Structures are given as structure tokens and as C-alpha cells.
């Protein structure tokens, strides 16, 4: 059974990737998760691409999950009446809390209280720090600023205030509406931006409760508060995105690499999926080849042990979206083919699931098994296998669609949505059907199966079986295979 790429690829969709052809191209190039970024575009735009992704997944037969990424409490510039402008160093311009259609000289921002929360001398960074301005004075709703580092400005660019604790709520009205919309649309998972506390997940859960649709929620780590409470946030949420774009503005830039490594390791210790995001192949927005530094960045995220790597502007607005995905896929595959191991877990797994999965991977290697298989109701067992980054194929069987969807993010996991298993014989039959039916292995090959008993009871992971494909083995045969 050939193992190809194991780390997953998340692609942000946008104007460059809104046509059926482009979306199909992304899927064929290896997109595992499509990110709908609610910071940009209308709900109608997102609905359109949502349907195109589902369509492309169906026609290609590839599993593609859809992530709805909420804007979060980010302050942004409003819209300009007449396209992008250049703010030159030394220019004096106005950012206003008033809701106006902007000009080069005066543009609105999405947080009307901003004029009351800044003071002369404060530094504002626009578009992930590409443009910097300093507050000169505040007159009513107008903040007069001096451009200290010039550059282009355009619609909805982010505004960060690294040293100002602004009092924006964790979910804006827009976020609430977008979340309701995304849930009803059918997204597979949700990301909350600018998470500051483990409690923030409750805001999403409340809305899920109200709508009656529950989906996994990822926390985007892009605030100093999230770095401070990282472990609690990893525990509270279903996974993490290291959102390096805003993180590198909110924190001194030089801290980003270590936060990335710490977040990836913490997620692995806790068996939660982790995405490394932003600027991974940034120069491919314009060029058909990435820089060597960018190739190394993707490779190093994989070697850190990330479950997934993400493309943003490269696929949403870039010139070479599909080429970028295939380039990223190649870098990942080549890196994984090298014999450099990801860091070891820093703790010895002690939960039943944790200990059993470590044993399963050792046994699988020792007996030359062709794959590891996990039966899971929550996804937890298979995430515990995934975090070990074992070379063998890793198959998850679950009757729960939401579990399959979140597993789209987990390193090396291929998921089969299967009917609920009542007896162990059903379990073996499902494995045979998947592996032999799809020509993934031959009769007589061994696989190691981890499951719970009684079968189908969440949290009961306690069974490890060696199964010979094509035979309904009993315990004696399994024991013999183990010898
Ligand atoms: N749907 C869209 N319509 C118009 N412009 C877009 C759209 N999506 C992205 N862009 C442009 O591409 C840039 C990069 O895209 P990306 O999706 O990474 O946005 P971002 O603002 O950096 O993300 P985030 O809000 O999550 O931090 C954006 O800043 C924006 O200028
Ligand atoms: C992805 C994202 O939101 C960031 O990097 O800031
Ligand atoms: K967003
Ligand atoms: Mg961000």
C-alpha cells in the first residue's frame, strides 16, 4: 500500500479560486480542506464556492472538508470608493470611526470606538504590518495619523494595535451571523479568530446550541493572550491554527517561530490537530516558484510535527493557485520521505487510548503490518495514533460524519464513514471491504486494529487486534500472527 503525502493541505478560497475549474484544480492538486474566510467576500460568495467544493469532491472522489473561518474581533479598514491607494511615508491621513466610503485621505474602520481607545503616539499596523502609522491626534471620530512606513492600502485590510488592549468582544455581530450562516450551509468545522481565552469557545457553542448544529471549533492563535493561555486553549478547543500573519503583528515577529514549535508540540501531546498558517509560499502570489526560504518553511512545519499546512493569499488571490498547491504537496512529500523524525512526545501516554496506540504502532512495525486501523466514535483514538507519525498507512473507521470531517485535518489519516459496528466480526468485515475492495492490500496481509469494547462505546479504547485480511480470525490466529 503506497503511502503518499501525510501532512494535510488547507487552501483559502477567494476571487482567484471561485470558478468550478479552479476549485476542481485545487482538489486534484491535493487540497484536503477548503477554508472559507469570512473576513472577505459576501455570504453569497461563500455559498457559491461551498457548493463548488462539494461538487468537485464528489466528482473526483476525494475527501475535502470545509472550514469556516470567522473574522473575529479584528479591526479593519472600511472600503475605498476608488480602488487601492498608496500611502507614502510622511503622508498624513485620517482613519475615522464614521461609516463612510473612503478616499486616499480619509477612510473608515470597522470599530467605531477606536477613536476613544487610542491616543497620540500609538502605533497602528495595517495589513499584517505592511503599512505602519502613528496617531498624531484624535478629533471626534477622526484619528489623524502619520504614515511612518508607507505602502499600499485597500478594502478591508486589517488594523492591529500591538500595545493597546482594545475592548472588542470575542465574537462580533458579524461573526454571530456568519457562524449561523456557515452552520446552516453545512461547513465541517469552524475557526474562531483572535481567541484570547479558553472560555471563548462557549460563544460558538451557544450559537451551535441555538441553531441545533454542532461542529468542531479550532482556535486561531494570533493574540499574546492566546500564547499565554495556550495549554488551556488547546484543551478547550478541538484544534489550533497557528495564525502567523496576525501573530507576527500582535507579538514581536521574532517570537513567532518558537510559538509555532510550542503550539505544535502541545497539540501533539494533547492529541489535537494543529495547522501552521500564513505566508508559507507567499511569493507564489506573484511568482511561479517559491523562495528557498519558503520551501524550507513548509518543510520545517512538517518536521515540527504539524498536522496541516495552510495557504492563504497564495490560493485566494494569487496568480498560481493550483501550482502553489502542487508545489506545497511536493515539498511535503519529499520532506516526509526523508528519514528525519518529528520530535518525540514529551510524556509517556497513560490513558488507555494513549498507551494502547503506542503499543499498536510498535506491534504493527514489528510484524510488518500493512496498515493501522482505528475504530472511533470521537476521533480521539485515531488522533492518538496520528500524533506518533508512524510510516504505516492510518485508516480511521467511524460512523460519525463530524468525526470524519475533523479528521481531514489530522496527519496521515484516511477516514472511512461506515455503518455503526455491533460485533467484532462486523469490524473485520469492514476492514476487509475497505482494504481489499479498494485494492489497498492483499488477502493474507496483516493490519493492526485498535478499537473499544464493547464495540461502539466512546472512550472505551481497550482492544488491540492483529487481523489477517480476508479471514475472520479468532484470537488464537491473532496470537500466532503476533509471535
Ligand atoms: N474574497 C475576497 N475578496 C476580495 N479580496 C480578497 C478575498 N479573499 C482574500 N482577499 C485579499 O487577499 C488577501 C489575503 O487573503 P487572506 O484570505 O489570507 O486574508 P487575510 O485578511 O490575510 O486573512 P485573516 O483575516 O484570516 O487574517 C486579503 O487581505 C485580501 O486583500
Ligand atoms: C490565518 C490568519 O488569520 C493569520 O495568519 O492571521
Ligand atoms: K478570518
Ligand atoms: Mg488572522
UniProtKB/TrEMBL annotation:
It catalyses: pyruvate + ATP = phosphoenolpyruvate + ADP + H(+). Keywords: ATP-binding, Glycolysis, Kinase, Magnesium, Metal-binding, Nucleotide-binding, Pyruvate, Transferase. Residues 5-325 form the Pyruvate kinase barrel domain. Pathway: Carbohydrate degradation; glycolysis; pyruvate from D-glyceraldehyde 3-phosphate: step 5/5. Belongs to the pyruvate kinase family. Homotetramer. PANTHER family: PYRUVATE KINASE (PTHR11817). This is Pyruvate kinase. It comes from Plantactinospora sonchi.
